[in-house]
UniProtKB/TrEMBL annotation:
InterPro entries: ARTD_PARP (IPR051838), Poly(ADP-ribose)pol_cat_dom (IPR012317), UBC (IPR000608), UBQ-conjugating_enzyme/RWD (IPR016135). It comes from the Eukaryota. It comes from Rhizodiscina lignyota. PANTHER family: POLY ADP-RIBOSE POLYMERASE FAMILY, MEMBER PARP. Residues 119-131 have a biased composition (Acidic residues). Residues 1024-1199 form the UBC core domain. This is UBC core domain-containing protein. GO terms for molecular function: NAD+ poly-ADP-ribosyltransferase activity; nucleotidyltransferase activity. The keyword Glycosyltransferase applies. Pfam families: PARP (PF00644).
């Protein structure tokens, strides 16, 4: 075992090894860490050195060491430590310490390397017994100008030579990621070819995730999502990785995903711990130490809610998926191919020929461009791909869309269910791993922070299970060993009622075997016949059916069997699951609290005959009827939520440690109920953690609903809120209502709410009829909606017949409050009910629960809140009292608020057709041109880098370095600085690159822009298209900056003063093959470039750009010309029509293919007209030529072509 070998090696070096300068080797309090004293001279100072070993499970082949010294250590020694800290991968502890001793003692006091004869006398004495080969290799690798080797153990993963070309590649890769909108950080010897950490990050606010999803995921808008890449043997590019086998690839790069509340990158210590996780015990010690020093909880780099599955996905699959994409697969196609061929031997190139994998990525306008952009798809050659950028884009794909993928197998979920929390697919193995491996939420955290929510979830599950078939989804795959129902079924509503069914599926399994023994209730002992074999084991759970001696079933855990035939058991737990007991318990609860009966004296110890049954039945093998009955039984023996909460708070332990009170089966069921709830529910009525008293958050309560417990409620995919707002915007632009949305009630019977919370509101099933058509039924009148949930309202005690016995809430009715797009005239029906057929038009905001418990006192304010969300006065919902409800401003996501929301004054918007009321309600969330949330105007970008809100910032600065974020550290800025241009393939200065004179005669930046038809931004400019174009523009500029001009062949001026309209690009093609007739004609006429105009329509990127030549003029095909340039100057290519265009086509590939077509000599080469006839093309003749070409070839023209060219024709030269 690696850990055992590590411990053995440590004991050996600590007790037996004598290494010069290494003294007092001792363990640390933390696992995988130790200390020693470094004393290089006999009478010299000593320094304490700390060594942290990463990945002990990989020792002694793939681990790494991290060395930290005292602050008082000499600078040259500290610098050596920093350089060597990450360079000992694959060495044993003895080799590490010996190499350190030799390396550090070879330096003199000034840090220089002395002559050999200046070494201490005792050095030669020690060398005699040691093998010098590994030491010599290490010295050479450590101090050579270009490190080449880590150790004798890692020849296949050598340190990368730090050549200028290697450093240029690092800068190019990281600059691409930076230009795409991400923050870059690093630790270690990145540019020196040594082990290093590279981080790529962005703020959560940039991802287009709703505030409800952020709450459900426990992240904040200002948090950074960080991808940390660890390169143990030096940075590796895509080209490096593709030359390795799978084992080498995994050794060369590792991934870790986390969240930081304070910085855009982890500290070095945090990065180390990310790949060498701290044990629970060590973490508890750190937290206790901070608490003792009065420090607040540390909020640096830490795991997020799905870090573990994301880490598994990235480390296991990313590299394979990246190389699948080389043949043209999208991310979706590559993942489907991977999932279809796991564990199979196949010929990859042959298999991907199957069209089912060759499909584009589904386009989504609900997310910003930062999330949807595809660097690999936009890059022509795989070797030019920035690996950090590609990895980060893949991470974002699975982070923001985490609810669309299984958290265990990572397959796309085959369901239309939209959820706000991620979950697993229907495979039993995935559910088992999700629960057993800790991928799900912490039930302890939920119980402590939201006890009312947990009580609500358990109660609704119990109600559904008790309501004859309403519970249809079960915790299958968890391996639950549960008690039998045969001797107990009369006590459980779900079992007794269904037993009468004639359906064969209602039949119960064979009667289980009961065991006879004598039970002493006072001493908690079972006495068996001495001739019998012990039928139980320590830790087993058993149940005694109720009898004359016991009013209820009794469940307990087997303690010790060491003294068989006497077996100890835990205190029996009564199961109050029968109807009469529930009612009696409820009626007596208040009196029992106030007047406690005197304790009954302990009975005289005596053994009485008893029969018990083991928890030995497999839950998965039962039919649905039996499963429901078992769920009722297991829930009936759970403690109350407040009892569980008290245990967690007082012991600081997980519920699984409460072994004598909660059975493994009940704990697994409880975890499933909480984890499988994919809605976001937050209790408005909270519980004070210190005193356990009711505290009402009055500012979040909706006024006008006295006596109802309130919960904030959100359901749907993470982009559901954005889709809802987009639909509201569309409707408001068309109908121009004074208020963009309205509110309405929805009621449903209690047993339906378990599925509603899991699946959301939809109309897939009929519960109460559909007299007014398909859709979600709602009403502005409370009493109408509550009528559909009043099954138990007139007699609340009847609800308790099916209630969870331990509930504190005692729910009698539930209704929800929805926000709806204000378009009643477009509803399926508007009278007597609102019937909304579009799911994206409905967004649930609140859940109202009526509790039949006199102990619950809601501290409700009699006055309405001051900060309110204004509603349409003609459609404001009425509450239970008949008065209109008042909704606090806090009920609406913060991203929709401006300073004008409360006063109802319209903000100053630019070019918006919306009414002031609409703008006031929705603020800047829709990205209207000129608003601060989604600015598109280019001239404004030059005035302020940090334009926009934190919810959806769009920064037009070329750096796009998250202007409102934390400043980039100096060490990270140094990455992008070059001391001198490298001798090979120089990186060109931005926008001013020029290759050798012999390579090209093109001079960038010399085009007379004033002679070109520059247009103002079109009226159809939309935020979505603008973001995509801005992203593509930056990508092209980045590629242009790092590619020699003569190789690139095209040029676009990056000057923002010239790029005033993102929907019109001017591009120059140049540096054609000098042997081409076109190049000869250009040289004869002293023309250095072909000037193109690219125009983008309103439907881009779903439609192609219109590409034409402005100058010079080409000979038409009938005149002997070619090069795919029509008589009117339009480019004749299928790619530039709707027939050949795809939304994933990159503009870099467009320019490349246009240039290749223009250079083609088949069937004829391109030629220029004589200089005397060389005049610019007009837009009109280009459009007509384009239309003719499409008609001749049968290509489909873009539907937005007319609108695009109309704007153009209106501004002819």
């Amino acid at each position: 075992m690696p850990r055992k070998q590590y411990l053995s090696d440590f004991q050996a070096v600590a007790e037996q090894t004598q290494i010069v300068g290494i003294l007092n080797i001792r363990p640390s309090d933390e696992s995988g860490q130790f200390h020693f004293d470094l004393q290089l001279e006999r009478d010299g100072p000593s320094y304490e050195i700390t060594v942290l070993v990463s990945d002990i499970s990989d020792y002694p082949t793939e681990h790494a060491y991290y060395l930290m010294g005292e602050d008082s250590m000499p600078k040259h020694m500290a610098a050596t430590f920093e350089r060597l800290s990450l360079s000992h991968a694959g060495q044993t502890l003895k080799e590490l310490l010996q190499s350190m001793s030799d390396t550090l003692r070879s330096l003199d006091l000034e840090g220089d390397t002395p002559m050999p004869d200046s070494q201490p006398e005792d050095y030669e004495d020690y060398e005699d017994g040691e093998d010098d080969d590994s030491i010599d290799d290490f010295d050479e690798a450590a101090f050579d100008t270009v490190p080449t080797k880590v150790s004798s153990h890692s020849s296949t993963t050598a340190i990368v030579p730090a050549t200028p070309r290697f450093q240029s590649r690092i800068r190019a890769d990281l600059m691409l990621a930076k230009s795409a909108g991400f923050k870059i950080g690093c630790h270690g010897g990145l540019l020196d070819g040594l082990s290093c950490y590279v981080s790529v990050s962005c703020r959560i606010a940039k991802l287009g995730v709703s505030e409800e999803a952020m709450q459900a995921w426990q992240v904040n808008a200002n948090d950074y999502l960080i991808l940390v890449m660890f390169f143990p043997n030096g940075y590796r590019s895509v080209e490096d990785l593709r030359m390795m086998d799978t084992v080498q690839q995994r050794r060369s790069v590792k991934f870790s995903v986390g969240i930081s509340h304070s910085n855009y990158k982890p500290t070095l210590d945090e990065a180390v711990k990310a790949f060498n996780p701290v044990s629970v015990e060590d973490q508890a010690k750190e937290e206790a130490a901070r608490a003792s020093q009065g420090q607040s909880a540390f909020r640096g780099f830490e795991s997020c809610f799905i870090s573990r599955p994301l880490n598994q996905l990235l480390n296991d699959r990313l590299l394979r998926l990246v190389f699948y994409r080389e043949v043209g697969l999208s991310w979706s196609g590559a993942e489907q191919f991977y999932n279809d061929h796991q564990g199979m031997q196949y010929g990859f190139s042959e298999e991907v020929a199957d069209d089912k994998y060759m499909y584009p990525e589904p386009d989504s306008t609900a997310y910003p461009a930062l999330v949807t952009q595809d660097h690999i798809g936009d890059t022509r050659r795989m070797r030019d791909v920035s690996f950090p950028l590609a990895a980060m884009q893949f991470l974002l794909r699975h982070f923001v869309r985490c609810t669309e993928f299984c958290l265990v197998c990572h397959c796309k979920l085959d369901t239309d269910l939209e959820a706000i929390k991620p979950y697993v697919c229907e495979k039993p193995l995935c559910l088992y791993q999700y629960m057993s491996l800790g991928f799900g939420p912490s039930i302890e955290h939920e119980i402590v922070t939201q006890p009312n929510v947990v009580d609500l979830l358990i109660s609704l599950c119990h109600l559904a299970a008790s309501s004859h078939g309403k519970l249809e989804v079960f915790p299958v795959g968890l391996g639950l060993q549960v008690p039998p129902i045969w001797p107990l079924e009369a006590d459980y509503p779900g079992a007794a009622g269904s037993r009468a069914s004639k359906d064969k599926s209602a039949e119960f399994p064979p009667r289980p075997t009961g065991y006879n023994a004598k039970f002493n209730r006072a001493t908690l002992e079972l006495l068996f016949d001495s001739n019998d074999k012990c039928p139980v084991r320590a830790g087993d759970w058993i149940v005694f059916p109720k009898s004359d001696k016991s009013e209820t079933d009794l469940h307990c855990r087997i303690g010790s069997t060491n003294y068989f035939p006497t077996v100890s058991v835990s205190e029996p737990i009564p199961s109050y699951s029968d109807i009469e007991k529930i009612r009696a318990l409820t009626e007596q609860k208040a009196s029992q609290t106030k007047q406690r009966k005197p304790e009954t004296p302990a009975p005289t110890p005596s053994f009485e005959s008893a029969t018990f049954y083991l928890y030995d039945l497999n839950f998965d093998e039962a039919n649905d009827v039996w499963k429901r009955a078992v769920i009722i039984q297991l829930l009936s023996v759970l403690p109350t939520v407040m009892e569980m909460r008290k245990y967690i708070v007082e012991t600081s332990k997980e519920l699984s440690s409460w072994v004598n009170r909660i059975s493994p089966a009940a704990a697994g069921l409880l975890r499933w109920i909480i984890a499988s709830s994919r809605a976001c529910i937050f209790q408005v009525d909270d519980i004070d953690s210190a005193e356990g008293k009711k505290v009402t958050k009055a500012e979040n309560r909706i006024h006008g609903m006295p006596g109802w417990m309130q919960f904030r409620f959100a359901m749907g995919a993470p982009d559901k809120e954005r889709r809802f707002l987009q639909e509201a915007k569309k409707s408001a632009e068309k109908l121009k209502p004074k208020f963009p949305t309205i509110f309405a009630w929805h009621g449903s019977m209690l047993h339906n709410w378990h599925s509603i919370i899991r699946e959301g509101l939809h109309y897939n099933y009929v519960a109460s009829g559909r007299a007014f058509g398909d859709g979600v039924y709602m009403s502005p009148d409370f009493h109408t909606s509550v009528g559909y949930s009043n099954q138990y309202r007139s007699h609340p005690a009847n609800a308790l017949n099916l209630a969870w016995p331990q509930t504190r809430l005692n729910i009698s009715s539930i209704v929800s409050l929805q926000e709806v797009v204000n378009a009643p005239q477009q509803f399926r029906s508007r009278s007597p009910h609102f019937v909304v057929q579009h799911i994206d038009w409905v967004q649930t905001r609140y859940l109202f629960v009526k509790c039949f418990n006199p102990e619950i006192k809601l501290d409700e304010s009699k006055t309405a809140p001051i900060d309110v969300f204004h509603q349409d006065p003609t459609l404001t919902p009425k509450g239970e009292t008949g008065a209109r409800i008042v909704i606090p401003a806090s009920a609406i996501p913060r991203s929709r608020k401006t300073d004008d929301v409360l006063s109802r004054n319209a903000p100053k918007l630019v070019a918006t057709p919306l009414t002031s009321s609409f703008a006031s309600s929705f603020g800047n969330v829709f990205g209207t041109a000129g608003t601060s949330a989604d600015p598109i105007t280019l001239d404004e970008a030059k005035k302020s880098k940090a334009v926009g809100t934190s919810a959806d910032p769009i920064d037009l600065d070329i750096d796009m370095d998250d202007g409102a974020s934390i400043a980039t550290a100096d060490e990270d800025r140094e990455i992008f600085k070059e001391d001198s241009p490298p001798p090979c393939e120089p990186i060109l200065p931005q926008g001013k690159g020029k290759s050798k004179a012999s390579m090209t005669d093109f001079a960038p930046g010399t085009l007379d822009v004033s002679s070109l038809p520059i247009l103002a931004p079109p009226s159809y400019a939309t935020p979505g298209a603008s973001k995509r174009l801005l992203s593509d523009f930056r990508t092209l500029v980045t590629v242009q900056d790092v590619t020699p001009l003569h190789e690139l062949g095209w040029y676009i001026n990056p000057d923002p003063d010239l790029m005033t309209n993102l929907f019109q690009w001017i591009v120059e093609l140049h540096s054609f093959d000098p042997t081409l007739p076109l190049a000869k004609d250009m040289k004869a006429q002293k023309i250095t470039s072909v000037v193109l105009e690219l125009r983008f329509g309103k439907d881009f990127p779903h439609t192609p750009p219109f590409v034409r030549v402005i100058r010079p003029r080409f000979l038409g095909f009938n005149q002997g010309g070619g090069g795919h340039v029509t008589l009117g100057g339009a480019i004749c290519m299928e790619l530039l029509t709707n027939t050949g265009w795809t939304a994933v086509s990159s503009l870099e590939s467009v320019l490349l293919q246009v240039r290749m077509a223009m250079s083609s000599t088949d069937p004829r080469p391109a030629r220029l007209v004589p200089s005397s006839q060389n005049m610019d093309y007009g837009i009109g003749e280009a459009v007509e030529a384009y239309r003719r070409a499409c008609q001749v070839h049968g290509w489909k023209m873009p539907p937005d072509l007319l609108e695009t060219t109309q704007d153009a024709q209106a501004s002819r030269f």
